[in-house]
Task: structure prediction
Amino acid sequence: MKTVGLCLEALDVLFFRDGRPFMDGTEQMLSGLPLPQTLAGAICTALMQAAGCDFGRLRHALEEGKPFAEAVREACSAEAHWIGALAVRGPWLARWDKNPATPCEVLVPAPATLHRAKGKTGGQQLFALAPLQEELPGWHPVPEEQRRPLWLKEAVVTEPVEGYLTPAGLSHFLEGKPVSATEVVPAGDLFGLDYRIGIGISPERLVSEESQIYGRGFLALKQGVFLYAEVCLPDDAPAGALDKLTTLAFGGESRHVLCHRLKEPFAWPREVPSTEGQKPLVLLTTPCVFAHGWKPEAFTGRLAAAAVSGSVAFSGWDLARGGPKPTRFAVPAGSVYFLDDLPDDAPFLLAETEDDRRQGWGCYVRGVWNHV
Result:
């Protein structure tokens, strides 16, 4: 497969709903950041529209339970069958890098183990939790798993860091080195919410309905900030397969982003154990759904500790099938898994179904850790 880096620049404010219903009594609906399935659906739909896909046949094939790739083969001409095999990664927040040698600066959510002194902001020291080696009184892990508590050697009251790691901060974290506060970008420097008021219109009288007033908060990316994505093209994809992908309907209300290719995809940092005592860790960069809640099937018997900060509930509307998708719960990006070992042939994504892998759930980067 060939990986292509895409820059998605918003042409207007964007809107991405979460799993909460929008109904009477809802004061306002706020946009979140896009999820992998939203991006994958937008790109595949745009490519299939450009290829003249028969969406009625596609829906019929999916309703029969056929895999996406097989449904695409039934609904598209032979020249477009490669669309069923492409995979999408992301999206991630990004901004143009001041260094001309690098295409852009991709930012990932701060790791759940990264803390700062509670109640303080600004350029103070950051702390990284790690598994404790000594026995802790009262700690009774499940015998067959023997997970360790996460610990901080400094005696200071802390709270999790919020924001996004720069590439330099991500490299330092994966290398097990201290992360500077300047390497964490506050969310407010990357995006904000644009609040707007709407009213309900009576379809019969074409006037506003009584008491039908609501508010929404649209995602407004700051100047110079965009969404970065990667498309993995199968070997049989034609040259210029993405040339027609110039704009993309992305998210709710058919709002669009400008889509163009980067010269090179982002070079993700990667660190493997190289000294005695070092062990591998995994940092999720996109959310992921696991059959066993917070625990990836791929790490069974290898987990030393984990930091998972809650869950992400999501659903969505299935355009192909013409109905709502079931609500699921994903482990958020920024979750950290400390491992005793990680084989070289570990999967590139932690997603546990073919559809989830195709949509880019469970992207991760590798790093190292040491006991506290």
The first strand starts at residue 2 and ends at 10. The first helix runs from residue 36 to 50. The two ends are 40 Å apart (CA to CA).
